[in-house]
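INFO  loader      accepted 1 record
INFO  loader      residues=499
INFO  predictor   begin
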Amino acid sequence: MLSVLLLPLGSLYFFRFYENELVRKTEIELISQSAVLSTVYRELIGKNSIERNPLYTPVFPSLDLSKANVVLPRRPQARVALAYNQTEGYPVAQQAGKSMQRILKNTQRVTLSGIRILDANGTVVAGSGELNKSLAHVKEVKKALSGQFSSVLRQRISDEPPPSIASLSRGTGIRVFTAFPIMDRGTVYGVVYLSRTPQNILKHLYSIKEKVILLVLVLLGLTSLIVMFISSRLSRPIRELIDLTQKVTRGEAETVEVLKNPGTRELSMLSNSFSEMSKTLHERSQYIQQFAAHVSHEFKTPLTSMQGSLELLEEHIDEMPIEQRQRFIKNLQDDTERLKNLVNRLLEQARADSLPTSKESTNLLKTLNILKSRYADSLLKLDYEDLKAEFEINIPNSALESVLANMFDNSLQHGATSITINTQQKEGRLEISIHDNGTGVSQANQDKIFTPFFTTRRETGGTGLGLGIIESILKASNGTIKNISVEKGALFVLNLGLE
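INFO  predictor   done
INFO  writer      dumping tokens
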């Protein structure tokens, strides 16, 4: 926004492009004046014949201030015309020049142009100065005497001191010169030689510098208001976002809410990102708290049992029958094995929860073929005859094997002897249905099976972490798992992205 303040000054440099248009405009005006003066001169020398089929010969401006090395040095001084009074046609030209002198003087007062009328030899016969002197050696005049219009830019030295900002402009130090041939039926009878300084936009601005300063002050005020408005529009939602995050830090709020009036699209995205991040962290915190509570409960039960058995053995080991003593020792071994299994499953759960997002893909058919041979000795039949070989799903091979192995182990533990696997492609994703013929999931337990440590086989060593591990592995690959209620067996549907 501070750069906006520099625009009024920086825009002066862009006026140079406009100066080129001013030069062209000056050239056009000089061409128009030359055409009129040429007609008057021809009338005075009696060479303004009327042609039956006159050809239009328009003259177009050709000067371009933007081109390099376009400005020529100052015009050379006029020279003495040798034997000008003996030149053929000079008396007629001189008489016509005298007749035009008053016209030229009055014209110059209005147009502010330098005017010279030259005869066919380049001698000045009318104008404000240099009468009876030759300009035939001047580049543009020489070209006009050959019958071609010529215009050039030359350096100009002003008698007046330039304005202080004139250094920004090229228009203050140039003058436009045009040499217009006076012709009749293809013969050159003279040249209208005009010059004029183009309008200077910077000089005009300097003459009204008070208004320019006022305009700059107005722009400064408006820009300051815009800066304050935008600053407020940006800083307010940022302050609100900081306040919300500090409330979460102090424990006064659980998550960061989305800003109602973010102000800009970027701040809206930032607000949504903070909100999603805080919700994810809150959910993760709740998961850890619940998980810690479940773990402490799962460890507490066998530890309490072990402590009781050890106390009884310590107090009554000498008087306790051998059978009873062996039973207590067996309970201690079972509880120890249970704790060992629990620790191993917790390590698997921790690894599954910390899996990074992977871009690896796996061929589903190849993975199932490997598992089919692995479970052949367990008398578990896998049926996936209709599965297509080209299915590549977005999950690492090891992760997919772990998911399917856990699913198949659960089916075996619930008495299944066969598993039917079907697939269905939907909107760039693949649904994998796994249906076994085991005892299935009761209606009462449908909503509990994904809860950590929930199991119906605790007495046989179940930990209730199998489905939780599967869910965490799938989540790392942007996948999901759900249980579908069926009349016979258990049906789980995995959803994964296709490569």
